[in-house]
Design brief:
The complex is a heterotrimer of chains A (about 220), B (about 280) and C (about 325).
Chain A (H helix, E strand, L loop, with lengths): L2 H43 L3 H19 L2 H7 L1 H6 L7 H26 L2 H9 L4 H32 L10 H10 L4 H29 L1
Helix pairs in contact in A: 1-2, 1-5, 1-7, 1-9, 2-5, 3-5, 5-7, 6-7, 7-9, 8-9
Chain B lengths: L1 H21 L6 E6 L4 H16 L2 E6 L4 H8 L5 E6 H11 L3 E10 L1 E4 L14 E5 L2 H13 L4 E2 L18 E3 L5 E5 L1 H7 L5 E7 H6 L8 E4 L9 E6 L6 H10 L2 H11 L3 E3 L3
Parallel strand pairs in B: 1-2, 1-3, 6-9, 6-10
Antiparallel strand pairs in B: 3-12, 4-12, 4-13, 5-10, 5-11, 7-8
Chain C lengths: L1 E11 L4 E12 L4 E5 L6 H8 L7 E6 L2 E2 L5 H9 L1 E5 L10 H11 L4 H15 L14 H13 L5 E5 L7 H18 L2 E6 L2 H7 L2 E6 L2 E7 H6 L3 H4 L13 E7 L5 H12 L4 E10 L2 E10 L1 H12 L4 E5 L5
Parallel strand pairs in C: 3-8, 3-9, 6-7, 7-8
Antiparallel strand pairs in C: 1-2, 1-4, 4-5, 9-10, 11-13, 11-14, 12-13
Helix pairs in contact in C: 3-4, 3-5, 4-5, 5-6
The chains are: A mainly alpha (about 220), B alpha/beta (about 280), C alpha/beta (about 325).
């Protein structure tokens, strides 16, 4: 495949589907992941018995999903995707396993970022009479923001990596292009173009992530 | 400010999901699953003609392995697929209790034995390794080629093609005078396996071989003889769809003289149009 | 007024139960600067944190202006905490936020109007002397400035009580003095009761009018700071690690001069009256808020010892015999 063919016929479509897939996943994953991470953070510290049990259950589920090889998760979740009324083996269908994998991943990253927040600041906020909701949203999440930003950047890069497996269920991404048109078609040039595009994408994401990190720090 | 940003972001995400889900709403979309070679270029070639003729929207969906396109078809995720021959489809139907049918015979895609170490079968040393396909029907195809060349003798006994197991490949070989090591692996890895130092021959379909740069005749050491075209690739669909007009139209454009000419000019001798 | 009555608190760890506060009863008056002092592990911080319920107590009661704090829960507890400010050893301000945002935090959480917040933040910055630094991030500030931010933040909602948990322990002596001056100013101008937990002698001397001395969770002594120093309270001594180097021959006598008399006249008069020699080992003056108190150590020979003690007994001076060579 010539570079010209790649750019004019394939690049736009595959780049767009990759960005769409990963972008939507990140949006949903970040929102639910932040809630999950905060929940883990809150329940982890509690002294109440039932809350501790809740933490253990949450943590177990998170660990369970995270330890699933993503390739397997894609197939395990096919019926669930259909239940949502989506074509499971399609671009929009692939967003479901991608999101399910992203939520616990981002959740754990958020939890880690929150734990790093100086306990003294939390105590000071408590002494100021702030409610638990205010402490989480106005103090802990804000203090953790730089660390969360680098965590989200890492998640985004991981998601771009995961998206390469979309070809397994017939969904398109730069990664599946590299595999279909490069690897199994023995077209090294096509593979290099796609991989090169992914590299540029990752570098771009990292650069933007670093920039936002500096901004919020 | 933050609230508005959050709201805007969630709105965008919702819109894009509904957008993705409904983009095919106005026109009926026919999803056809295939693999990057040789199905994709053929379907891409007829895409516009089909859409113009029928008013339907044709989506080509690429798969990376042999198992999934039939699963997708059986689940109704796609309406047709083009990547397999009839014995493969029969095996799938039998193993999965499905009722997928052949809508049209498309082309012959000959299997051949390729090598980077020898140019004549008689040069094959004792104990050489040969890689073959690892799904039941294609494994049988490969073994049959070796049998026809007199390298081994195979006997499947009462085992149906659908029940052939790559793990017990040696139990089907009743005679192996050169002590060849027969190794079933994923089809898309066979051409690459020729770079391994102990692999002398890989048996794979011509499309893969050509793509992998094995096109020159010096690499081809043996070839499948298929006078009955039983291994010709087919367009598969659900049995209940056989009479649907979208399918009839699809078969029509796929088997047209014009398409045959395109296939011949694109794939040369490796893919030969044949419609029964 | 804060009244502790038979307050008890234990910490349970896997293997043992540690008594952090053991039956402490204590009253702190409105408007005073009160010190909770003791070595680390004495339970002073724990006791301080029971006032705003950062620590729950096991038994007894704590009444803050008549309210039994251990009965408070949820919203009532949060509203109660808004009336009690607290500052910490490591400042505990938000690193990602500007000085302005840090000070404004409690106001924002109370849903004040932006204009009112702005006015209040500037007013508070004025009090703690940070008007120029409002847009700075904490990493651009010195330790003392960070503590000023924390003080301003804690005062935002007009509290009646300010709790200081080792608030100057991480600061150098000069900065410590300036923070203590600020606390004294706040106490005087705003009439806020200040309770200081510290192990630093300078803090006690400089700021605390009254102190309570704690050891291993027990309350050893409560009283006016200068009285406790003058009476050479044994409890206080456990805190002071003053290596008093004294001669090994003769007898060493330590004299404490109360507010009412001065050192020189008594010493010189004694020399004249008894007609005996003694050497002055060392002496020093210490400032207790507004007062100056003096101590002096003299060395006398064995034969003159009884006469000197007898003579000094008739004066206002408090006397303590120091076992020189045995130390």
């Amino acid at each position: 495949m010539s570079l010209k063919t790649y750019i004019t016929e394939y690049l736009g479509k595959y780049l767009l589907t990759t960005l769409e897939m990963v972008g939507i996943t990140l949006l949903i994953g970040a929102v639910i992941g932040t809630i999950l991470g905060s929940l883990l953070y809150i329940t982890r510290k509690s002294k109440k018995k039932w809350v501790q049990v809740l933490y253990k259950v949450l943590d177990f589920i998170v660990g369970l999903i995270r330890s699933f090889p993503f390739y397997i998760l894609i197939f395990v979740l096919l019926p669930f995707t259909r239940l949502l009324g989506l074509r499971a083996m399609s671009n929009e269908g692939f967003i479901v396993p991608l999101t399910i994998a992203a939520i616990p991943f981002i959740g754990k990253i958020i939890e880690g970022s929150l734990i790093e927040v100086n306990e003294g600041v939390v105590e000071a906020a408590t002494s100021l009479g702030l409610s638990p909701w205010q402490i989480i949203t106005r103090v802990v999440l804000r203090e953790a923001l730089p660390s969360i930003v680098s965590g989200i950047t890492l998640s985004l890069i991981t998601l771009i990596g995961y998206s390469a497996m979309s070809g397994a269920v017939g969904a398109d991404s730069l990664g599946s292009f590299a595999y279909n048109f490069g690897m199994i078609s023995y077209d090294t040039a096509a593979m290099l173009y796609a991989v090169g595009t992914i590299v540029i994408l990752v570098v771009l994401v990292q650069t933007i992530g670093n920039f936002i990190y500096k901004l919020v720090k | 400010m933050k609230k508005y940003v959050t709201f805007a972001l969630s709105a965008i995400s919702l819109l894009s999901i509904s957008g993705l889900a409904s983009c095919s709403g106005s026109k009926k979309t026919i999803y056809v699953g295939t693999m990057s070679q040789p199905g994709e270029p053929i379907l891409k070639h007829i895409e516009k003609e089909y859409e113009d003729k029928t008013g339907y929207n044709l989506e080509i969906q690429l798969f990376t392995d042999f198992a999934t396109p039939n699963n997708a078809l059986a689940q109704g995720e796609i309406q047709a697929n083009l990547f397999q021959h009839k014995p493969f489809l029969d095996t799938y139907n039998e193993n999965n209790k499905t009722d997928l049918a052949s809508a049209a015979i498309m082309y012959d895609c000959a299997y051949g034995g390729y090598s980077k170490k020898i140019s004549n079968l008689s040069d094959l040393p004792e104990g050489a390794k040969i890689t073959i396909a690892n799904d039941g029907s294609n494994m049988k195809r490969c073994l049959d080629i070796l049998d026809a060349e007199g390298l081994i003798k195979v006997d499947y006994g009462t085992t149906a093609t659908a029940d052939l197991n790559p793990d017990t490949v040696n139990s089907y070989i009743v005679e192996n005078s050169k002590n060849l090591v027969i190794s079933p692996i994923a089809t898309n890895l066979i051409a690459a396996s020729l770079d391994e130092k102990d692999v002398y021959i890989g048996i794979v379909n011509a499309t893969f071989a050509i793509n992998a740069g094995l096109g020159s005749s010096s690499n081809l050491v043996c070839q499948e003889q298929d006078p009955t075209h039983k291994n010709a690739n087919i367009l598969a669909c659900k049995t209940e769809d056989l009479k649907e007009d979208w399918l009839t139209a699809l078969v029509e454009v796929l088997t047209s003289k014009e398409t045959d000419a395109f296939i011949t000019s694109t794939f040369g001798s490796t893919i030969t149009p044949y419609h029964g | 007024m804060i009244v502790f009555e038979h307050v008890k608190k234990t910490f349970k760890s896997k293997n043992n139960i540690v008594s952090a506060i053991n039956d402490v009863s204590l009253t702190i008056e409105d408007g005073e600067i009160f010190g909770l002092v003791g070595q680390s592990g004495a339970g002073k911080s724990t006791l301080l944190r029971t006032i705003n319920q950062l620590e729950k107590i096991d038994s007894g009661s704590i009444l803050v202006n008549g309210v039994d704090v251990s009965t408070l829960k949820g919203k009532a507890l949060r509203d109660f905490r808004k009336g009690i400010a607290m500052i910490f050893q490591h400042f505990s301000i938000m690193e990602t936020q500007t000085v302005y945002q840090n000070i404004a935090l409690p106001l924002v959480c109370e849903h004040w109007k932006r204009k009112d917040i702005d006015a209040r933040v500037h007013e508070l910055a004025e009090i703690v002397g940070l008007t120029e630094k409002l847009q700075s991030k904490p990493r651009e500030l010195s330790g003392g400035q960070k503590q000023r931010v924390a003080i301003a933040r804690s005062l935002a909602l007009n509290p009646k009580i300010l709790l200081c948990d080792e608030a100057t322990s991480a600061l150098d002596p000069i900065t410590t003095d300036s923070i203590l001056d600020l606390l004294k100013k706040i106490n005087k101008d705003l009439g806020i009761t200040i309770i200081i937990v510290t192990h630093q002698m300078e803090v006690i001397k400089s700021a605390c009018k009254r102190i309570a001395i704690l050891k291993d969770g027990n309350l050893l002594e409560v009283g006016e700071t200068d009285d406790l120093f003058l009476s050479s309270s044994s409890a206080l001594k456990t805190l002071v690690v003053e290596d008093e180097i004294v001669p090994t021959t003769g007898k060493n006598i330590k004299l404490y001069f109360p507010k009412t008399c001065t050192a020189e006249s008594i010493i010189t008069k004694m020399a004249r009256d008894l007609n005996c020699d003694f050497s002055i080992v060392w002496g020093k003056l210490e400032k207790f808020q507004e007062l100056v108190l003096g101590t002096l150590i003299i060395n006398v020979s064995e034969e003159n010892f009884d006469r000197v003690i007898e003579y000094l007994g008739k004066t206002d001076v408090r006397v303590e015999i120091i076992e020189g060579g045995d130390r």
